[in-house]
Design goal:
Keywords: DNA-binding. By secondary structure, this protein is an all-alpha fold. It is 64% helix and 0% strand. Helix 2 crosses helix 3.
């Protein structure tokens, strides 16, 4: 699914902009490193609450994360 791929790419870009490791994000979300990696690779759906938490954490909209908008806020 294209949405998952876009989500993963944007998630990775936002993480790298903050100079965070995948392990840092996994710990913050209280998930395994492998599960977080699968999110970035666009291989797994995420719960809506996780999506909202990520949007708040990075200061972007959920629509931006999902590729529905090019505007971050």
């Amino acid at each position: 699914m294209e949405t998952l791929k876009i989500f993963g790419q944007r998630l990775r870009t936002l993480r790298e902009e903050k100079h965070l490791r995948q392990a840092d994000m996994a710990e913050a979300l209280q998930i395994t490193l492998v599960h977080y990696q699968r999110m970035e690779y666009g291989k797994v759906n995420i719960p809506s609450l996780t999506l909202c938490c990520l949007a708040d954490y990075f200061g972007v909209t959920t629509d931006y994360l999902l590729g529905r908008s090019e505007q971050r806020s």
